[in-house]
Design goal:
The protein is an alpha/beta fold. The chain has helices spanning 4-14, 19-26, 30-42, 107-122, 180-189, 251-254, 256-265, 273-281, 285-309, 324-338, 341-344, 358-371, 374-383; strands spanning 16-17, 46-49, 62-65, 71-77, 82-88, 93-99, 130-137, 141-142, 147-148, 175-179, 199-204, 208-214, 217-219, 313-317, 348-351. 44% of the residues are buried.
């Protein structure tokens, strides 16, 4: 028989429903449905409302998922900027804050500031419970231990467990971690692309990575390293040293850090890929040429993934997406030349719908899928005092 959590899952998916409809969908008796709904109303996850009367008699009470019954905390850590948000239970940001700080010095330098910012943001939502915390990091992660793992760009973070930093908040809630490209993929699929089961999301920024959704499921890989295509070898980078310490990596010619480095060597005043994008928008021919070439190199390498996965949509996210037209002009040039006609015949290439908010929205989706799952809600009803 459908549990309280199963009934909640239906209400969350349907948005507005009735007890009678839930009975039809679950096969449960009216008494059983009423008891499960009562438990959900008691803990605040479901709200009841009575629509205006119609001429047909007494209207049925509507049941709605109450997205304002709690919040989740989201932290999207980037190389030079960390975005923090408090989101409601529908994954919609209520309050946000940015920390413009390099991650190179390690978590002890950044994480205490992250926790302090979260504590400040929480001051306005103290009357609702916190259900969970989501984190995203660049590069490979160990989701079980909650840490960066063997990342070529976060050496000071390697194997440092991040959950203990949140102990000072005293929340005692689940804390989930994932790679930033995976988070972006989840964030992008939460919008208009929700109907699609096969997406390839490129994060083209300081570094390069991909989030892969195949068959409606986020693919993390056997060692949670799926999508790390930035260190694929390419003839265009032969002999060039990558920041990972190897040579010949795609990032050495197409990563944002490589473009910044080359412009700095040419005497240009740039510190981050965002500065390069500003030059692109100003019509700077050198910056435009570099960004287009970056897209062309990425297209050459990612064509194999398009052939292998046959995605319906290729989403371009990250700082390069702010120079979308220039970057994608290069990407299309090589992608369609190197991928098969069958794989690209119906392929759409689109910019990230949520811009630089995608990772935050994705961390929210990641946490909500866990803490609002049917088993989690069943456990909540069994152990949590009613409001």
């Amino acid at each position: 028989m459908a549990s309280v959590g199963d009934v909640f899952t239906l209400i969350r998916e349907l948005r507005d429903t009735t007890r009678a409809e839930l009975g039809q969908l679950t096969g449960a008796s009216r008494t059983a449905v009423a008891a499960r709904v009562a438990a959900l109303v008691e803990i605040g996850l479901v709200a009841e409302s009575v629509p205006a009367p119609s001429t047909g008699g007494r209207p049925a009470t509507m049941l709605t998922f109450d997205a304002d019954a709690g919040v989740v905390l989201c932290v999207a850590i980037g190389i030079s900027r960390t975005r923090i948000a408090v989101c409601n239970l529908a994954g919609e940001p209520i309050a946000t804050s940015d920390i413009d700080q390099e991650v190179a010095l390690g978590p002890d330098d950044l994480m205490p500031d992250v926790v302090k910012r979260l504590d400040v943001l929480l001051q306005d939502v103290r009357d609702v419970p916190v259900y969970g915390i989501g984190l995203s990091l660049p590069g490979p992660v160990d989701r079980d231990r909650g840490c960066s793992r063997d990342s070529p760009i976060l050496r000071g973070w390697d194997r440092v467990e991040l959950r203990p930093y949140f102990d000072d908040l005293g929340l005692g809630v689940p804390i989930l971690l994932d790679n930033d490209a995976n988070a972006i993929a989840l964030g992008e699929r939460g919008g208009e692309l929700q109907r699609l089961d096969d997406l390839l999301v490129l994060k083209a920024s300081t570094g390069l990575g991909a989030g892969i959704i195949a068959g409606g499921v986020l693919q993390r890989g056997a060692s949670q390293a799926a999508g790390e295509f930035g260190h694929d070898k390419t003839p265009a980078a032969e002999g060039l040293r990558c920041r990972c310490g190897d040579t010949g990596c795609l990032e050495a010619v197409a990563g944002g850090w490589a473009l910044v480095h080359r412009l700095q060597q040419a005497g240009r005043d740039v510190r981050h890929m965002r500065d390069v994008v500003e030059l692109v928008h100003a019509g700077d021919p050198e910056a435009r040429g570099m960004v287009r070439a970056s897209g062309r190199h990425v297209g050459e390498v990612i064509a194999a993934a398009v052939n292998l996965l046959n995605p319906a949509v290729l989403v371009v996210a990250g700082d390069m997406a702010a120079a979308y037209d220039v970057f994608v002009a290069g990407l299309r040039e090589s992608l369609y030349r190197n991928a098969t006609a069958m794989a690209t015949r119906e392929l759409e290439v689109v910019p990230a719908a949520h811009g630089d908010h995608s990772a935050v929205l994705g961390t929210a989706a990641m946490v909500l899928d866990e803490v609002l799952s049917a088993p989690a809600v069943d456990a909540l009803v069994a152990t949590r005092p009613s409001r």
